[in-house]
Write a structure and sequence with these properties.
Elements: E1 3-5, E2 15-16, E3 21-22, E4 27-34, E5 39-40, E6 45-55, E7 60-61, E8 66-69, E9 75-77, E10 82-83, E11 88-91, E12 93-95, E13 100-101, E14 106-107, E15 111-113, E16 118-119, E17 124-125, E18 129-130, E19 134-137, E20 142-146, H1 154-175
Parallel strand pairs: 1-4, 2-4, 3-5, 4-6, 5-7, 6-8, 6-9, 7-10, 8-11, 9-12, 10-13, 11-14, 12-15, 13-16, 14-17, 15-18, 16-19
Antiparallel strand pairs: 19-20
Length: about 180
């Protein structure tokens, strides 16, 4: 079972929509709000003990993602986003709708990603505002290219697939509550 608990420091409890899939090894602590059809995968840690974490609808927080922030700040992640495996989000940070955070990347202090922007795998970004529909890559991350207006937001293109997978995993664990390991 996942660890979903109030913050020992503040007493604030996570608010998770009933449609959300939370993997058995995920940890969600404190002031965390997760919108409908989002999915929190194996090993993810969302620690809202220093401030709030807000995640929109249909957003995928993938395996081993860590989300936390400096004291008295927040992390806001929009709807239809993909936060790739092993990414680190450390606020204060705002991530708009339809964004993609690449595998193993770091989105750090005072970063704002506007709708439809993307950080490439392994990138590190801090103290920047990424305009809408831009790809940034590297260490430190730098502008790489712009996505055309007519192109659907990158996160939106795949977030529905993860919502469907989340539904299937949620149903499996509901039908198999004693499942441990093969």
């Amino acid at each position: 079972m996942p660890i979903i608990m109030p913050c020992p420091r503040t007493g604030k409890k996570p608010k998770i929509h009933k449609s959300v899939y939370v993997a058995p090894t995920a940890v969600i602590i404190g002031d965390v709000t997760i919108g409908e059809l989002s999915n929190i995968w194996f090993g993810a840690v969302l620690r809202g003990d220093s401030g709030p974490i807000k995640i929109g609808k249909n957003t995928s927080i993938q395996e081993n993602v860590t989300i936390h922030m400096e004291m008295e700040t927040s992390v806001i992640i929009g709807s239809e986003c993909i936060i790739g495996h092993h990414a680190m989000i450390h606020g204060p940070t705002i991530i708009g709708d339809g964004c993609l955070i690449g595998i193993g990347s770091n989105v750090l202090h005072n970063t704002k990603m506007n709708d439809g922007s993307m950080i490439a795998a392994g990138a590190v970004i801090t103290n920047k505002e990424i305009p809408p529909r831009q790809l940034w890559a590297g260490v430190p991350a730098k502008f790489l290219k712009e996505f055309p207006e007519e192109e659907e937001f990158i996160g939106k293109r795949t977030s529905g697939d993860y919502a469907d997978r989340g539904k299937k995993f949620k149903a499996f664990f509901e039908l198999n509550p004693d499942f441990n390991r093969l």
